[in-house]
Amino acid sequence: MLGQLDPLAPALTVVVVGHKAPLVMEALRGRTVSFATQSPQLGTGHAVQMAWSEVEKGPDTLLVLAGDMPLIRTATLKRLLERHAREGNAVTFLSGVLDDPGGYGRVIKDGGAFVKIVEERDATPEEKAVAEVNSGIYCFARAPLQEALGFLRADNRQSEYYLTDTLTFIQGRGGTIGVELCSDARELLGVNNPEQLALVEQALREWGSSCWKRSGPGGGWPTAARRAPSKRTAVHASSAPRRSRGPENGIWWWPGRSTCSCF
User: Fold this and answer.
1) What predicted TM-score, i.e. pTM, was given to this entire model?
2) Which domains does the chain have, with CATH numbers?
């Protein structure tokens, strides 16, 4: 994930750590990143709150990413940032359409216009039937996000502070919410257990080695990326610990990792 951010030239990267924090920090030794600690892990919104003292040092655009998505591509992140700037949104997030959306937050729309994101455990049967899901990757304008974080409440079935709730708050204050649909929904795949790892490996085989050869071993996928415009901040954040037994099983991501990068 951090490798896909590199071509976008972030000015600041903050990794939020919690579960197995020493392992994460050791693995990222040598990288120019700052760390923020999330303990206990109380959700995605809480992760960004814990990173705020570091992130507020950066520019005015924040890119927030989940830490368990190894297939996300630089080109996709670049399109998200470009849409955010072009439309002048308060928030722009990445979505995708999945054959099996189970476990993901659903993107609820009315006539094509964004209404809300509802988490799986809080969704009605009708909402669970929606195939468009939230990726967990957002591009925020700093000021509305800062205000919204102060109003987060853990009044949901998981008793967590959802970052998705900031979108409803911001929209209620008149902020515009944009949605960038991912061109290949496999980029949204998270690695939380061995079965999901197998799905990622299958995607790699289907995409083929030609992608890898064109982008080089450091990039992973064809990026077609250029330097991001100035005065842009990216925040990369993962959720609280997920259901993985960790890298000792060959799963190379680290549960609970969050990263905040500023451009």
Assistant:
1) 0.80
2) 2-262 (3.90.550.10)
